[in-house]
Write a structure and sequence with these properties.
By secondary structure, this protein is mainly α. The chain has a domain at 66-106. Helices cover 77% and strands 0% of the residues. It has four helices and no strands. Helix 2 (27-58) packs antiparallel against helix 3.
């Protein structure tokens, strides 16, 4: 859907340029693109966490290595904290709050 809006925006910019008009500011589209970039980062971490938990859940109890589990969990926690530091107002993104709760609760 975002790609369709971007195509329309590009066509409008070309038309405005052709007729020597002032280029419109597509703030809604720009905001949506920026939010999607943040959501991609959030969901990438969530997918990695989910895949790791799935792998661990399929291991037999005898093959579980507690230090490796702890190290893997800490790695995901560090990724969440790094993302939180890089985002402005991370708490304003509901998916981030859910991600942080999920990863920290593991």
């Amino acid at each position: 859907m975002c790609a369709a809006f971007k195509i329309i925006k590009d066509e409008n910019v070309l038309s405005e340029t052709l007729f020597d008009l002032e280029i419109s500011n597509y703030q809604t589209l720009t905001d949506m693109i920026e939010k999607n970039k943040v959501y991609d980062q959030i969901y990438d971490i969530y997918k990695k966490h989910r895949e790791t938990v799935k792998e661990w859940s399929m291991l037999p109890w005898g093959k579980l290595d507690p230090p490796a589990l702890d190290m893997g969990a800490n790695q995901h926690i560090r990724m969440v904290k790094k993302l939180e530091n890089n985002l402005k107002m991370a708490a304003s993104y509901p998916p981030f709050i859910k991600l942080k709760t999920t990863v920290m609760g593991f």
